[in-house]
């Protein structure tokens, strides 16, 4: 059994998600200790439990330590099975973080899968659904992943209630050298159960910010009704993106400007991938046949943490060139 130190590097939930995904992929049992040791409330939260429960179902695994607050989990997978799965997080926990745990193993299942995941689509400390759909999926499709994602409804903190449907086709992936793409800037400004002008003001503030930087964008507006109330903006170009979320007392203009800044901070830097995409793509590149290379805007602790987990399972698969800010991944096919 492989032992993974959950306090390594940034010491957050990503170490757990990557370890469980790789355990399903390789069939290697894993013990994760010191889970989320560097967080204010260490151990498993409801969202992490749902991710492990989902992985348990798709791989018919034996699991120990699956309870709120647990800092140690043992996960023993069997074979991964495709099929139809419905996962209701029950909170505004991120649907994307659940997907990060189970998408890689479903790509090697014998059959196609259809996932319905209910929870938060646009919540703090997680990629927004628009970022994942338009930046992450764009990149992993170029490695050969076959995945379709539809947003059926949006979910915000604290009520959640958002719903995505994901179709996954088992895929043979091939490594790739990623180059900087020619791309236009796109965005989505959305609000739910709020006056129409909220999404419109967010959009105008974003466009004005970008104009001051000499950039133009095409920004879609979504005005919705649903279970939860909230708003947000995501903006992207090629392999880089940024987002911001509304909250009580925060003006719509602040949300638009914040999304613009978060995007521009990555967009202006050298590097093909933004710093968030770089760590998200690692596990898929490790599954591909051959070598994947890309530069990133900055080397982060999240990337180092993911490298630690992947290399623990697959040997010296991921390497960092600090000077060039390049990540080189030798996939196992």
Map the helices and strands.
Layout: E1 2-5, H1 13-26, E2 30-33, H2 46-59, E3 62-64, E4 73-76, E5 84-88, H3 95-106, E6 113-119, H4 129-141, E7 146-153, E8 162-169, E9 185-192, H5 196-212, E10 217-224, E11 230-237, E12 240-245, H6 252-267, H7 275-287, E13 289-295, H8 301-314, E14 318-321, E15 326-332
Parallel strand pairs: 1-2, 5-6, 9-10
Antiparallel strand pairs: 2-4, 3-4, 6-8, 7-8, 9-11, 11-12, 13-15, 14-15
Helix pairs in contact: 1-2, 1-3, 1-8, 2-3, 4-7, 5-6, 7-8
In short:
Helix content is 34%, strand content 27%. It is globular and about 55 Å long.
Task: Please supply descriptive tags for the structure shown above.
alpha+beta, 34% helix, 3 domains, UDP-n-acetylglucosamine1-carboxyvinyl-transferase, Chain, 333 residues, 4-stranded mixed beta sheet, Dihydrodipicolinate Reductase, domain 2, 8 helices, Translation Initiation Factor IF3
Notes on the structure:
With 333 residues, this protein is α+β, with helices and mostly antiparallel strands. Helices cover 34% and strands 27% of the residues. Strand 3 and strand 4 form a beta hairpin. Helix 1 packs parallel to helix 8 and helix 7 packs parallel to helix 8. The chain is globular, with a radius of gyration of 19 Å.
